Each structure stands twice: as structure tokens, then as C-alpha cells.
TrEMBL record:
This is MerR family transcriptional regulator. SUPFAM superfamilies: Antibiotic binding domain of TipA-like multidrug resistance regulators, Putative DNA-binding domain. Residues 1-71 form the HTH merR-type domain. InterPro entries: DNA-bd_dom_put_sf, MerR-type_HTH_dom, MerR_fam, TipA-like_antibiotic-bd, TipAS_dom. Residues 77-104 form a coiled coil. Gene3D superfamilies: 1.10.1660.10, Antibiotic binding domain of TipA-like multidrug resistance regulators. The keyword Coiled coil applies. Keywords: Activator, Coiled coil, DNA-binding, Transcription, Transcription regulation.
Amino acid sequence: MSYSVGQVSAFAGVTVRTLHHYDKAGLLSPSERSAAGYRLYGEADLARLQQILFYRELGFSLGEIGAILHDPGTNALEHLRARQAKLSEEIARLRRLAEVAERAIEVQQTGVSLTPEERFEVFGEIAFDLSYATDAELKWADSEGQRESMARAAAHTKEDWRQLMGEAGAWRAELLAAFDEGEPSEGERAMDLAEEHRLHISRWFTACPPDMHRRIADDFLADPRAFALVVPPSQQRPGLSAYMCRAVHANAARLGGEGRR
């Protein structure tokens, strides 16, 4: 049996345009012709189309599919195993994203409901970037500290947040003053401010030993969204995140080992 492009499109569930594209790409060309000269797909062509659609469903690119189908020496099993590994990684990533969404829902359900006016009163210019929250949750997904931090944040009352943000605002003013006055990042004043920040995290979110504080400070330097949670963009200065990062590292070295909790 031979079939026209329209017939193949109908029963294979692909568009005529897609079949023409496969033909142009050299993946699948009709191998037969009708008496009138029209190109037709034979049984072998349909079997090849099934292979193409199978690999496409698994996420292979047309180039990868062409390499598998055109080269008899290509080990299709190796390609499938590699794709299986990538799909497993993607499934794990999507599961973690689903957990992030679930935790965000829990926070919204159990957290404090604030009006826009109250939110500005408590948080001021500090805005929580959801994209950063998602990335951070994925990055620290296996961290007990991350889980504890999320749970404690969800349990904070409005007055807790008011006190927390008040402490953060006073600390931020001291940090900016030290930076503007040219205090060295490895000096005692800057290190003391770094230590205050570490203890603030421990007091309100999760235990923050020096090694963890180093990683947090490295994130401040690498990701502007993270540093914006500490110093809003309107108050930032060039080099401030690097200054904070160096102060944290210097303080961690001063504490030595795990340091104080």
C-alpha cells in the first residue's frame, strides 16, 4: 500500500507542513510515485516515520534523529540511555518546582495577610523576587537549613516581621555608613556588622554557622536578586555587595571553624 502526504498526515497526526519539513531535512522522503507522478509513502517510509515520531516525543532534535537513522554504526541504545538520564533529571527538577509551589501556597495560607499599606510599612523597599525564591529553593533543596528557614518564615507574625525588618533596617544603615566612610571590609567594624547579620539569620530563620554565611555572602555577590533582599537597589553603591562578601569571609575566618551559633 502507498499513501499520499495528506493521508499520512491524517492518520499519523502530523501536519503536511511537518512532513514536508522532514522531507526537506532529509529525514523522510516519499519513496514511491503514483502513475500520475505524485510522490507516495510506502510501508518502509511509514515505519521510518514511526521512528522519527518516537524520537521526537522523547525530545531528540532533528539533527540527533538524523544521525541515528542515517548512520548504521550509531548506537541507538546509547542515545536512548543518555536521553533517559536527561529526562530523569528534568522530572526531578519539575518535582522540586512542584514542591516550591506547594510551599509557597502553604506560606500564603499560613502566613500573615498584609494589606499593601501594611506590607510597605513592614518591608519598605525590600521586595521578594519570586524567581529568586524558586532558584534558591532549587539550589538549597537538600538543605535542612532551607527547610527550617521556610517553616520559620511562614510562622512569623506581623509583629515578628516588623521587629525583624526594623533590626535589618538599623543594621543596613550601619553597613552603608561603614562603607561610605571608607572602613576596610576586613576591619573590625565591617566584621562586626557581618557577625550581626549572621546572628540575625540565626535568630529569625535558621542556624547560620560561618561556612553557611560564606555561601550566602557569595550569593549576594553573584546574584543581584539576593543582595536586593538585604539592601534595596535604591540604597546600593557600586562595590557594596563585594564589600559585604569580603567582610563576611573575614568574619568567618576570625571566628574559625564552625564558630558561634
